[in-house]
Design brief:
The protein is an alpha/beta fold. The chain is built from 12 helices and 18 strands. Strands 1, 2, 3, 4, 5, 16, 17 and 18 form an 8-stranded mixed β-sheet that branches. Strand 17 and strand 18 form a beta hairpin.
Length: 427
Amino acid sequence: MSTLLIRNGRVIDPASGLDGPANVFVRDGKIESVGKATPKAAEAFDAKGLVVCPGLIDMHVHLREPGKEEEETIASGAAAAVAGGFTSVAAMPNTEPACDSEAQVEFTLLQGRRAGMAHVYPIGAVTRGRKGAELAEIGQMHRGGAVAFSDDGTPVHNAALMRLALEYARMFDRAVIQHSEDPNLFCGCMHEGRVSMELGLEGIPAVCEESMIGRDIMLARMTGGHLHAAHISTRGSAELIRRGKADGVRVTAEVTPHHFTLTDDRIRSYDPVFKMNPPLREGPDVQAMIDGLRDGTIDAIACDHAPHAPEEKEVEFAEAPFGVIGLETTLALVMTYLVGPGHLTLAQAIEKMTINPAKILRLPKGTLAPGADADVTIFDPKKKWKVDIHKFRSRSRNCPFHGWELRGKAVKVVVGGRLLDCTTAPA
């Protein structure tokens, strides 16, 4: 039997209402106890001065395998997750070929297990090949281990197909994760507003996102299905979700760190590292994301980790692909820009990255309750560090926070009972 004792840490488990000094005892990959007792263990770690919480979960990452392994593999992405303090990630299906079959789902699970780092959970495509023409085999993918369904990278723009997806996914109690974007309004490379006009770049209006969210909330109300709005970015989107929740619709939402820290003013540099979809918005939109996190409108924080090769990003802004990486900076950005200024308490922030995404994806994770899987994150909330993309475990370097001074750093994680060092995760 393997045993591990994490002692002297500040244990925060929002799912159990815990916040205070305690020891966490792990036996054979499960949490056995949390409290003052100090049982003998084969392995021990002193977490004095550190926060001990359920393993962080990022429910929205792109790992590029199969198809673009030069940008990221499941193994390198899982290592980047551990370096950032995450013990579980959910991989989006926009690979080549798309993850739209039971075999593809099982391949992702197998590669995740082979990597031996963070748990990797596959999200299956809603439509075959993510082409938006016909529904994929949702039941078979669920049987293979898919935890949700999405065509992320592109929206399910056909309303009849989206209705069917919500109805089928409901049969398996799974969410449909929508990349909210009306393709008829999507024709630019940044947010449509004053800055895009001054720069002479074609803009993407806020209503491009909001109109799709409004439609899908109505479909979720009609079907009783679970709609999850990925990476929302506008004040209008937040208000639509707020109203949907108040009306009893099964709708949840996530926001990325770049959408609660950056505005479209960054595009004045014409640096493609600031090009992402949805695009960086205006100051009031950033504030709306923070307000939505604070009042519960936005349930989860997810980084939308989207690796790209350097030669793809090092082109003119309008020609560069959308996307930034974020697994190794998310925790620190949350600590620096949400917890530090008092927008969220530490417990609220941890809730957005543990039990809430676990509930959305129906994962048996996100808590330190006795009997739960022994996935634990241990981090230093006061550690100051400078972001250096050259030290990342990810294979890609398209991070908009290079050189930033941040606070909060993962030290160790426990994945399935195994204690791993965040600073020495394999590249």
